[in-house]
């Protein structure tokens, strides 16, 4: 990972680079690849816990498809129930569209982009390149401090997580008084209030 929710600040930032991108799709895409981790632990414990959904080929195909389904069907009811974000706004933002697919794709790729530097193995080119032959550059940077699957990895991991936590602060502070949850999960204020 870093801890899965820590992918959010990057997803949020990316969603702001183009007004047409849909924050829900980018956010869901940015966490989807990690759903394979517990599944790998349970069902394929002899394989790396990051594999198919952390490969470009798996992320672009199945990862994006899963993200689209989750955003389309699960995101509106869950987010409106837990965070009281307007359900109609969510449904509108999460309806099936080319932009939703594209937003999910951007999210999924952002996950790989963030995971790659801080992992000591990367299935990014799987199945063509052995994941253990692709060491993240940040891990390599810290090899003077210990082994790539030990201290060097943990430093890279903690550093990435710290950067993401710090990146979250401006978002939290900026929206603290302005439709906080709507801006956080929908990417804009509720349409009913802003009219
Ligand atoms: Zn991951």
Cα end-to-end separation: 40 Å
Largest sheet: none
* Rg of Cα set: 18 Å
What general outline do the C-alpha atoms trace?
Answer: globular
Number of helices: 10
Q: What's the total number of strands?
A: 0
Domain count, please report it. Answer: 1
Small-molecule components bound:
zinc ion
Q: Report the uncertain regions.
A: none
Provide the structure class.
mainly alpha
Could you tell me the mean pLDDT? 92
- Order of helical and strand elements: HHHHHHHHHH
Strand residue percentage: under 5%
How much helix is in the residues? 55-70%
Report what the structure shows.
This protein is an all-alpha fold and 195 residues long. The protein has one domain (4-190). It has ten helices and no strands. It has helices spanning 8-15, 23-31, 36-43, 56-83, 87-93, 98-118, 137-141, 151-174, 180-185, 191-194. It is globular, with a radius of gyration of 18 Å. The termini are far apart. The structure holds zinc ion. The site of zinc ion (ZN) has 7 residues, from α6.
Brief synopsis:
The chain has one domain (4-190). It is built from ten helices and no strands.
